[in-house]
User: Which sequence fits this backbone?
């Protein structure tokens, strides 16, 4: 199984991102565009694990706690590693300080299970498109120019109190994501949900 941990976000944000993708698609036929319904804010990519390990992963994730919800604002677009050689087009995520702390807690909780710790600094973002070198074409420069005009564009906000364990199933049509378990990380919210 190929697993990752992520936050979800509201459909209103997805709708704005769908509109953005529809606007930008015409400028690069060499891009593989992400379906908005499959977007998520990844907190930890676990990778391939034996199905028998899922229970231990869930047990490790369950105690993770934050004193408050994670607030996120989806704003602007950019490229990894840079505009000259784009491999990924992303939407920026500005968040409260507890988002990187939450990602670090997840990373630490999974390390005893033999899941490799992150070497890179956590950078929250939403992947909008990927470019492979062989499919890149001259029109990507037009896409870079168009995206440059959207550096401060707002796509909405979210307040999240639960993260999820997902399975990523790779198919010829692209990855499909199956939610395996949810983990409320703000205990007061979790208690209110349980009382309702």
Assistant:
């Amino acid at each position: 199984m190929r697993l990752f941990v992520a936050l979800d976000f509201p459909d209103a944000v997805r709708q704005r991102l769908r509109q953005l993708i529809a606007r930008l698609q015409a400028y690069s036929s060499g891009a593989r565009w992400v379906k908005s319904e499959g977007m998520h804010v990844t907190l930890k990519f676990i990778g391939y694990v034996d199905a028998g390990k899922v229970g231990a992963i869930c047990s490790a994730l369950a105690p993770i706690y934050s004193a408050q919800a994670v607030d996120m604002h989806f704003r602007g677009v950019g490229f990894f590693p840079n505009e000259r050689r784009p491999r990924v087009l992303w939407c920026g995520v500005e968040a409260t300080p507890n988002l990187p702390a939450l990602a670090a807690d997840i990373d630490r909780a999974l390390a005893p299970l033999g899941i490799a710790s992150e070497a890179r600094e956590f950078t929250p973002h939403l992947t909008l498109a990927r470019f492979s070198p062989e499919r890149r074409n001259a029109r990507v420069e037009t896409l870079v120019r168009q995206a440059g005009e959207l550096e401060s564009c707002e796509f909405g906000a979210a307040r999240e109190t639960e993260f999820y364990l997902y399975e990523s199933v790779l198919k010829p049509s692209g990855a499909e994501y199956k939610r395996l378990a949810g983990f409320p990380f703000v205990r007061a919210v979790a208690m209110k949900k349980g009382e309702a």
Summary: Strands lie at 2-7, 31-33, 41-48, 70-80, 88-95, 125-131, 154-160, 162-171, 174-184. The domain at 2-195 is CATH 3.90.1140.10 (Cyclic Phosphodiesterase; Chain: A,). The chain has five helices and nine strands.
